[in-house]
């Protein structure tokens, strides 16, 4: 089995545009059975800062032992700063070593998107890798995918 077949993808923030306010439908990823997580922030058109420049709050990761519990910041798991209005069509990432005492559920805290003309497009996915088990067979369902085509 090749390494890419041992990964699982989860949507942490479905693709959406926000002109002023908080992004909707943030969710968590269940990291059970994996040793590494990469969270990717994918921008489209960005005409309003993603994050709060005034508050110095960049998008960050939080963790919890349960899905509905109180999430706490993960140390050093934040972007260096807010995503600027000039950073169209870019990909940002945060890597997390899940063997370092991490809690099972991880979510993204995406602060307020500032007031722009057309809004800021954002989607966030998590990619789990290095499974701790041997029964990951590379099927679409194991990988968190709706469909998987191999050519």
Can you describe what's shown?
The strands form 2 sheets. Strands 1-8-3-6 form a 4-stranded antiparallel beta sheet, with no helix packed on it. The chain contains no helices and 8 strands. The model has no long low-confidence stretch (mean pLDDT 88). The chain is an all-beta fold. A hairpin with a 7-residue loop joins strand 4 (60-64) and strand 5 (72-78). The chain has a single domain, classed as Jelly Rolls. It has strands at residues 8-18, 28-30, 34-46, 60-64, 72-78, 91-97, 105-109, 120-131.
Taking the alpha carbons of the first and last residues, their distance comes to 15 Å
Shape: globular
Beta content: 35-45%
Number of domains: 1
Oligomer: single chain
Q: What would the average pLDDT be, to the nearest integer?
A: 88
Strand order of the largest sheet: 1-8-3-6
Helix content: under 10%
Provide tags for this entry.
globular; four-stranded antiparallel beta sheet; 0% helix; mainly beta; 151 residues
Quick synopsis:
By secondary structure, the protein is mostly beta strands. The protein has one domain (3-131): Jelly Rolls, CATH 2.60.120. It has no helices and 8 strands.
């Amino acid at each position: 089995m090749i390494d890419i077949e041992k990964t699982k993808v989860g949507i942490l923030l479905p693709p959406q545009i926000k002109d002023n306010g908080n992004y909707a439908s943030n969710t968590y990823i269940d990291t059970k059975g994996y040793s590494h997580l990469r969270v990717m922030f994918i921008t489209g058109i960005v005409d309003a800062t993603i994050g709060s420049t005034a508050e110095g709050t960049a998008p960050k990761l939080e963790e919890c032992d349960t899905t509905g519990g109180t999430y706490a910041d993960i140390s050093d798991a934040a972007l260096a700063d807010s995503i600027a209005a000039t950073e169209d069509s870019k990909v940002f990432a945060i890597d997390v070593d899940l063997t370092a005492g991490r809690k099972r559920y991880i979510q993204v805290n995406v602060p307020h998107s500032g007031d722009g003309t057309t809004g800021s497009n954002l989607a966030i996915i998590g990619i789990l890798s290095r499974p701790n088990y041997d029964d990951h067979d590379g099927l679409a369902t194991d990988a968190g995918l709706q469909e998987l085509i191999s050519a």
